């Protein structure tokens, strides 16, 4: 029979440890975030609904985005045990240069709407993390200011082709003069997708003060104070705009562009050319034949054509068709470092993440972006160790089963 006794103080004392208090409220919020989903929940609380929904939402019924995320959830990772994984190398080569992680920060529009630190915060994190960052044509910090914010970062410039080709050419020249490494042409936006959350929220640029937004301001005072007391929003590619995102895209972008126009881009850009928004094997082969150095399998995060092909499912066929003629990157639906590892195992040369770091930005500015990068990097490293691989180059289709 078990005998009971009162515990002695010497036995209790080692158990009575207090956790050091984190004084800074931003650090306190972020240290509770263990996953990208945690950052998303914090971002949702701290950001006006229309801004959060612009980031979080997709087109129409949002089927494309759900399918992409669900496929990552459903795949099976297949480990090999009894391997020495005390140390793993997460680095890889992207466009012939080293990247500390097999992912880059994707281009996102209107980033200073999410948090006033905007693109400058994101590129500084990319610089410290040793990964590339792509500035969007629709960015809210100038090409030159982003380059100055992180002088040693690997910067890419993402281009939408405008109806005014001279304006687009001027942007390309500015990017080259500022030392940008690569040009990323996005080709899946001949017209704006139907992003219904934005329509229902009455989302405009800049935000329109209505009874609804004033009420929302009362719920998110710090966001509004930061917006109204910092430098006014300035776009990388135009001086100002009053209206909805869809109206902006349909006004500026050229729906007549074809693969033949890649020759025009090649005539004004001497560096690596990445084509983003490829959704079929045939289109992948066409743009590589036309001179693309890399392609991004992407359905624009589900924000353009709903029920579009899921990039991860398309990946093996495209890799087989392209061979070593161009690099193949993948985005859409990535919320975990294990998603990145799975894509690399199936043949991707790198992944692009967008929403993941934007959730961090909304949750805590530059420190939130750093937290997002840290979470993804930790997950990549741990997944590789549990799979039994010492380097990214060891990943193969044997490590993944896609249903």
TrEMBL record:
Position of the signal peptide: none
Cofactor needs: FMN
InterPro entries assigned: Aldolase_TIM, Alpha-hydoxy_acid_DH_FMN, FMN-dep_DH, FMN_HAD, FMN_hydac_DH_AS
Catalytic residue positions: 300 (proton acceptor)
This protein's record includes keyword tRNA processing: no
UniProt key word S-adenosyl-L-methionine: no
Gene3D superfamilies, per the entry: Aldolase class I (3.20.20.70)
Keywords: Flavoprotein, FMN, Oxidoreductase
An example molecular function term from Gene Ontology annotations: FMN binding
Residue ranges annotated for the FMN hydroxy acid dehydrogenase domain, each copy included: 28-403
Source species, domain of life: Bacteria
Record: residues binding FMN: 107-109, 136, 158, 186, 276, 298, 354-355
Binding site for glyoxylate: 54, 160, 195, 300, 303
Family, as annotated: Belongs to the FMN-dependent alpha-hydroxy acid dehydrogenase family.
Annotated PANTHER family: 2-HYDROXYACID OXIDASE 1, S -2-HYDROXY-ACID OXIDASE-RELATED
Protein name stated in the entry: Alpha-hydroxy-acid oxidizing enzyme
Source organism of the structure: Phytoactinopolyspora mesophila
